[in-house]
Amino acid sequence: MSETEAMIHEDALPGHEAALEPKPDWEPRYRGSGRLEGKVALITGADSGIGRAVAALYAREGADVAILYLCEHDDAEKTAQIIRSEGREALTIAGDVGDKAFCDSAVAKIIEKFGRIDVLVNNAGEQHPDKDITDITEAQLRRTFQTNIFGMFFLTQAVRPHLKKGAAIVNCTSVTMYQGSKELLDYSSTKGAITAFTRSLSENLVGEGIRVNAVAPGPIWTPLNPMGGASPEKLEHFGENTPMGRPGQPNEVAPAFLFLACEDASYMSGQVLHPNGGTIVNG
Q1: Where are the beta strands (DSSP E) in the chain?
Q2: 20 to 30 A from 186, CA-CA: which of 30, 111, 142, 252?
Q3: Residue 263, class by beta-carbon neighbours within 10 Å (0-12 exposed, 13-18 middle, 19+ buried)?
């Protein structure tokens, strides 16, 4: 196993949703209304968690979906089945978004199958909690940035030639970008970079009719947290520090990704939505 592969799998990442109890709620809560009819969406990290919920909702709203994921083949196939059950087409592609060559080849496969890409959702991410900054290894620091922000650059570069007027990019940042996180120093730093990337890319593309926005979830019940090294004690009280007193579910976050991807948000770019349980961040 290479150093990169070892780093990816630290703390059992990325984690099987199939092994998570209780199971996250990914099911769309309402009937579709064709808001993404005829569109093709590329969603990273769509095998589980927020990515799966977004894929399910996009499919219900009429989109065909390309699922990019690292290595959880069973979870990815489950997401593909969900998309197909909505009457849409699915394409699963396994690989590391932190690898530029993979991003280029994945986009080529999507164009070959669907002929277009209308929505890019940069959702894939990883985290490795550490109580002391001196515990963060150079390999971990590089790996976290490679997945969380380099991957967004690489995919956006690969997709850019195929995006036409009316296309949308939605990035996943985090409440930790606004609040900070004492045990997620490298992760929260990448999320700050993602927010800056979102605002800057919006300025870069808005004149071309391409909107770029982001979603900053609070504590959401997905494989990222229990598989990302969180202690049993922390998981027992996960999300209790929000004003709502509980963690959110993936299907409570997915509608924000839908809103920013469709024409409902036609006058929004460079913005961040905050499904975080009521935490005020003024961002």
Answers
A1: 40-44, 64-69, 90-94, 119-122, 168-172, 211-215, 272-273
A2: 252
A3: exposed
Instruction: Identify the bridge partners of residue 214 per DSSP, sorted by sequence position.
Output: 171, 272
Query: Which residue in the list 58, 69, 178, 187 is annotated as catalytic?
Result: 187
Q: Is residue 35 within 8 Å of residue 264, measured between CB atoms?
A: yes
Count the helices and strands in the chain (H runs, E runs). Answer: 10, 7
Instruction: Name the residue with tokens 């990169």.
Output: 4
The radius of gyration of the chain from alpha carbons, rounded to an integer in Å, stands at: 17
Question: Are 273 and 255 in contact, with CB atoms under 8 Å apart?
Answer: no
Do 148 and 194 meet the contact criterion of CB atoms below 8 Å apart? yes
What pLDDT tens digit does each residue of the chain (283 aa) get?
Answer: 344 444 444 455 555 655 666 788 898 999 999 999 999 999 999 999 999 999 999 999 999 999 999 999 999 999 999 999 999 999 999 999 999 999 999 999 999 999 999 999 999 999 999 999 999 999 999 999 999 999 999 999 999 999 999 999 999 999 999 999 999 999 999 999 999 999 999 999 999 999 999 999 999 988 766 555 555 666 666 777 899 999 999 999 999 999 999 999 999 999 999 999 999 997 6
- DSSP line for 57-94: HHHHTT-EEEEEESS-HHHHHHHHHHHHHTT--EEEEE
> Using an 8 Å Cβ cutoff, are 61 and 36 in contact?
yes
CA 225 vs. chain centroid, Å, equals: 14
Give the position of tokens 């080849």. Answer: 105
Active site residue 187: yes
- Cβ contact 44:123 at 8 Å: yes
